[in-house]
Each structure stands twice: as C-alpha cells, then as structure tokens.
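User: Please predict the structure of the protein below. I'd like the answer in structure-token form so I can feed it into my own downstream comparison script.

Assistant: Understood. Taking the following sequence of 145 residues as input:
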Amino acid sequence: MSPAHLEGYLVVGAVLFALGLVGFLTRRNMIIMFLSAEMMLQGVAVNLVAFAHFRGNLGGQVLVLFIVAVAACEAAIALALVLMLFRRRKTLDVSVWQELREPDQEPIEDEGTLEAEEKPEDFQHLTPAGAEPPARKDTEEVSHV
C-alpha cells in the first residue's frame, strides 16, 4: 500500500470519527447517541486496519477484532438500557432522566424535564452508593461454625 492510499483510508476514518463525535454531542436522542458512538468506533477501526496493512503487521487488525467484540457487547447493553428507560419515561430524550444522577448533584433545569407530579412512584429505588441500609429488626444474627 502506498502512502497515497493510506491517506485516503485515514481521511475516511477521520470523517467517520468526526461525524460520530458531532452526532454524539449535538443529539439528545439516546439511540442516535449510541449509533454515533458506534460510528466513532468504526472510524478508529478503519484507521487501525489501514495502519496495520501499511506497516505489514497484524497488530491493528487484532485490535479491530477486540473493538468489534466490545461494540457488540455495548450494543446489547445499550439496547437493554434504552428499552428499560423508555418503558419508564416514554421518551428517549436524555435530559428527562435526571433521577439517574448522583444524589449530591443538582439537576439541570430544562424545559424538557418532567414535573414531580408526572414521575411514576411505583418503581423501587436502590440506596445511594456508599450508604448502608438500616438493619432489619426481625432478623437474628446466626453464626456458622
């Protein structure tokens, strides 16, 4: 592969990465954000394969196999997360899900957020990280020997 061909592949990879970055930073729809992240990963993969072919070793292609495996896992987890959050809020706008923030952070005021009376209260909530739940009085300590 000549350096002229390498430049073409690098330009394509950079364009994919830039489009993914712009899509991730400008959109508020979660599906579009995940697709943009996938596009950034594919831009990096194109560059790695081009450099691996240019240098004559397989190191970049092996890294691309790992990138594809991680992207597949990320897509499965993202799909589960999007479905769960959509069932809960009936929207895919990321600014609506303010309760997913850490408890000590103030929510960002936005005209798209739901009011307190619109939030469903029938879901169980976990305790914040680091806080120890109160001990139940009806359980007795049992020691195993």
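That's the full token string. The chain has a mean pLDDT of 79.
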